[in-house]
Amino acid sequence: MNKRMEEQELAECCKQGNVAAYKELYERYAGRMLTICLRYINDRNIAEDLLHDGFLKFFDSFDKFTWRGEGSLRAWLERVMINTVLQYLRKNDVMSHSTALENVPEVYEEPDQAFVETIPQKVLMQFIRELPPGYRTVFNLYVFEEKSHKEISQLLGINEKSSASQLTRAKATLATKIREWMRKNS
After folding, report:
1. Is the Cβ–Cβ distance between 14 and 22 less than 8 Å?
2. How far apart are the C-alpha atoms of 53 and 182, rounded to whole Å?
3. DSSP class of residue 105?
4. Is 180 exposed, middle or buried (0-12, 13-18, 19+ CB in 10 A)?
5. Which of 19, 23, 111, 162 can pair with 158 through a Cys bridge, CB separation 3.0 to 4.6 Å?
6. DSSP assignment string, 55-66
7. Computed over its alpha carbons, how large is the radius of gyration of the chain?
């Protein structure tokens, strides 16, 4: 396995339980999957544990994977990893660990997009990681996974209004952090 396999060949070899293919899958996708875990989980050790749990799920459930063209393997891996993280968050009742609602305004002024684009991505991702777990989870699902409030409510076992409220408060908190960063760095 010196040369890198194409995605479809890699998926087929993994389906057959090929250990070298498992190793290549891990080497190819672990970084991206860890990034997904860290978007939801602020503790690197827990995120790494979830990464490994996710890979075990991949290896155990390859029979459920169906090739649908280039990129379908990565999309499937991301879905399984996100579900692994959400399962952990539900089990640990993360949605009840949000900041008291009165501490964050319902209405806020969005920062100018041109200024936001000048902030390094690493800084923006840190701001997201600093959100309370419930806000961070809803924000990630809505913004990065493009889920509707209805879908989020089903995934997290909350009502749609709670999802919308958590998203608004996440955005308000981020807007405040962005404005503070812009003041310090202008």
Report:
1. yes
2. 39
3. -
4. exposed
5. 162
6. HHHHHHTGGG--
7. 19
pTM of the entire predicted model:
0.81
Q: For the chain, percent helix, then strand, then coil, each to nearest 5?
A: 70, 0, 30
**Which of the 8 DSSP states describes residue 158?**
-
Model confidence pLDDT, tens digit, residues 18-39: 999 999 999 999 999 999 999 9
Amino acid type, 39? R
Residue with tokens 């749609």: 160
**pLDDT tens-digit readout, 56-104:** 999 999 999 998 988 999 999 999 999 999 999 988 876 665 545 445 5
Residue type (1 letter), 153: S
CA distance 178 to 131: 13
